[in-house]
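My current task is to audit a protein record that another person submitted. I need someone to confirm that the token line plausibly describes how this chain folds. Take the sequence as given and treat only the tokens as open to question. This is what I was given:
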Amino acid sequence: MCSLQLVKEGKRQVTEQNNPLDLHHCTLCPRRCGVDRAVRAGFCGAGMQARVALVSLHPWEEPCLVGAQGAGTVFFAYCNLRCCYCQNHEISHGGKGIEVTDERLAAIFCEQQARGAATLDLVTPTHYVPQIIHALDLARAQGFRLPVVYNSSGYETEETIAALAGYVDIYLPDLKYASEASAGEYSAAPDYFPVAQRALQAMVAQAGPVQFQADGSLQRGVLVRHMVLPGHRHESMQLLDWLWQTFSDKIQISLMNQYTPMFHAAEHRPLDRRLTTFEYESVVAYAQALGITQCYVQERRAASEEYVPQFDGRGVQ
């Protein structure tokens, strides 16, 4: 394991007194639990070592991230949100996975490159940022060079985003809710929207406008995902208003229709049903009316449990 008393942040040394990545007083995410993770876990459930549930080549990410072989996904266990409909609940809520050292994590990154992955796709990484930074340093010393994708819920602190400068090429945040009521009931994070707004602004300021290569692959920038929820199409439109007014075409957007009632969704109407074609298409039409052109849309068949990975520990050890 790396020393967590002194962490590299680009070329600057960050001491224990001003270190936002100190796991002995954890403030990595907006929960700011302040716990010593060597002694006990905070809200997310994570400890001192990264816990990984699956390492795979994933063909179902956005086209600009997958290339010919797929995105090199590394699915981390635990999460700082409590989404009642989470399709990955066995790892995000249950913590299913295998603990790995930073050295093994670096080896996983290099193995994904050797498999032909187009990108290194770090899924739900927030609570393991210090371990990831150290592993990336180790991997780069061994020739690792894939674009790094930070695939998160969007519930991030500006300090943690700042610490990732020089390590992340592509930010892939969700933007889930506009209303305090939705965020509080569905994800136990009533402050979600103002927190995510600040986080996305920090991501765009750091990564800059989206930059694509000639083959259509995303080289750098921010790709914002929004999954339209049943009964919440007007909230989706509010989010599109904010994204367009704030970033215009500096970002790529991905409008997702793949909502599937899972986990505890049946306890929260209207999340107990699937999204209708009208609901999704009305949000897509609204994006078009705003003038948004940097936007992916999904076909109806994307809403299926068959797209949920099997978290069986493949590729971890």
